[in-house]
Write a structure and sequence with these properties.
- This protein is an alpha/beta fold and 497 residues long.
- The protein folds into two domains: 9-241, P-loop containing nucleotide triphosphate hydrolases (Rossmann fold, 3-Layer(aba) Sandwich); 259-495, 3-Layer(aba) Sandwich (Rossmann fold).
- Helix content is 34%, strand content 26%.
- The protein has 18 helices and 24 strands.
- The strands form six sheets. It has a six-stranded mixed sheet with strand order 6-9-10-3-11-12, with helices on both faces. The protein has a six-stranded mixed sheet with strand order 18-21-22-15-23-24, sandwiched between helices. It has a four-stranded antiparallel sheet with strand order 2-1-4-5, with helices on one face.
- The radius of gyration is 24 Å and the shape is globular.
Length: 497
């Protein structure tokens, strides 16, 4: 931005309240053309609310928004689009049954003589995909595309209406290492064309790889900002959580006992092929590998969500017959799915109802749920897990990602499971909430439970695991017994074996 020229975007004094919650307390944010601004903060800090206001999905109670020095009133998402603002949310806004080209031009179709100009839309879609280096056929249905390809469709959609400001919310959450590098290249290209990008991520290494400046929110207010080149990782964490975290991965004295949980010869089609491992009492076993390696598929088969073709599972030397998730729960296995919104929670129900779902057996009497017992039990988990929720009747879909994850944790902890499987336990969770989840995992291991963590984040794997199992194309390709002396490179070698 040239000296004296107005910023591409200025948000000043943005205030927004919801019933019982003041989400934003006079937040300021500026963005220059050709700049990548990192917007950071803990879950519930106000990032998503601020971006929904910028995207026209919500209106502020007070405050102003200026684009290139001109004040604007963004009352609807269409207003924002017309003003050149595009928001790519963590959950993509695509219609699965429509083609890539149809999604790109949805709501503003190209027409000729009153008819949709499908041939022209396909031609434009090809040009857009060529520009961002995406190999996607315009006629491909979005439901058949990978997560990375769907993201490319979202970016192409933003470019189609010549967005000047692009908001990316957790853009790398479900991408492979190669796909993340491709995303970075696209961001640099967009930046070179003067597009301003707001980049929201809880993966701090990405901030240093791709961003120019960082703005941090805490408790709905500005906590600080800095050029990325002038702040350290520790400094970012301090701004985000308001305190010093001397170690991102809390240490514990590992006392591993006898084998508690065994999996032998687990197979399901080509996704899971002859997988065998065990977990000892008090041990944290990490299972990692590239996306598509079969990690989640193996865990779903163990939990009875998918029926395996072969394999045996045993707990404390006793063979288990698991034909459904209900069987697994009764046997003492808890599974925190990677898709907390789609599979871990009923978003339209209250947080208390979600807590009660896997615990109805002991919460009910004579076929009726004892609401008082349910509320008292959940209140204890709210306190112990520090869940930020206005009240127990709050709809689960209204919570931040980190607090949603804590509600999922709460319901499984109430089951007193002997085996806990955490599939991507900190995906989309801020650094402060991550630390709390890590502490909880350590506490559970200290109680003698068998813990399995499935994670794509190699620092998390190395920092938390007592032992690491690596998968590739449905098979186990290696095991690391001493993570304290292992490197990310060693894991990657096994992951691509």
């Amino acid at each position: 931005m040239s000296e004296g020229a107005p910023a591409l975007l200025e948000m000043r004094g943005i205030v927004k309240s919801f019933p019982g919650v003041r989400a934003l307390r006079g937040v300021d944010l500026t963005l220059a053309g050709g700049e990548v601004l990192a917007l950071l903060g803990e879950n519930g800090a106000g990032k998503s609310t601020l971006m929904r206001i910028l995207g026209g999905a919500q209106q502020p109670d007070s405050g102003t928004i200026r684009l290139s020095g001109r004040e604007v009133d963004l009352r609807t998402p269409h207003d924002a689009q017309r003003a050149g603002v595009a928001v790519i949310y963590q959950e993509f806004n695509l219609v699965p049954a429509l083609t890539a080209a149809e999604n790109i031009f949805l709501g503003r179709e190209l027409s000729r003589f009153g008819f949709v100009a499908r041939r022209e839309q396909k031609r434009r879609a090809r040009e857009l995909f060529r520009r961002i280096g995406a190999e996607i056929h315009p006629d491909a249905l979005c439901r058949d595309l990978s997560i990375a390809q769907q993201q490319m469709v979202e970016i192409a959609k933003a470019l189609a209406f010549e967005a000047r400001i692009l908001v990316m919310d957790e853009p790398s959450a479900a991408l492979t290492v190669h796909e993340v590098e491709r995303l970075y290249a696209i961001i640099r290209d967009l930046k070179s064309h003067g597009i301003g990008i707001i980049y929201i991520s809880h993966r701090l290494e990405e901030i240093f790889a791709v961003c120019d400046r960082v703005t941090v929110l805490r408790d709905g207010a500005n906590a600080g900002e800095s050029p990325v080149a002038e702040i350290s990782r520790g400094g970012l964490i301090r701004l985000m959580v308001g305190r010093e975290l001397t170690d991102e991965f809390p240490k514990r004295d590992t006392v591993r006992g006898e084998v508690r949980f065994e999996v032998r010869g687990l197979s399901r089609g080509r996704a899971v092929r002859d997988v065998s491992f065990d977990v000892r009492r008090g041990e944290v076993l990490a299972i990692t590998g590239l996306i598509g390696a079969g990690r989640t598929e193996a865990m779903r088969a163990i939990f009875g969500a998918d029926i395996p073709d072969a394999g045996k599972v045993s707990l404390d030397g006793r063979a288990l017959s698991v034909g459904s998730p209900r069987d697994a729960i009764r046997a003492g296995i808890g599974f925190l799915t990677e898709d907390r919104k789609g599979q871990g929670l009923v978003l339209a129900h209250s947080v208390c109802q979600n807590f009660g779902l896997p615990n109805l057996g002991w919460l009910s009497r004579f076929g009726f749920v004892r609401r008082g017992v349910e509320r008292d039990a959940f209140a204890q988990k709210i306190d112990s897990l520090r869940i930020k929720v206005p009240n127990q009747e709050t709809v689960a879909g209204n919570l931040s990602g980190g607090n949603q994850q804590k509600v999922v944790l709460a319901k499984w902890l109430a089951r007193q499971c002997d085996v806990l499987i955490f599939d991507e336990p900190t995906r989309g969770v801020d650094v402060g909430a991550k630390y709390e989840i890590y502490q909880l995992i350590n506490e559970l291991a200290g109680q003698g439970k068998a813990i399995v963590i499935v994670s794509s984040e190699l620092p998390e794997v190395l920092g938390m695991a007592d032992r690491i199992v690596v998968m590739h194309e449905g098979r186990i390709t290696g095991e690391i017994d001493d993570p304290s002396h292992a490197t990310q490179e060693q894991i990657m070698e096994l992951a691509v074996a």
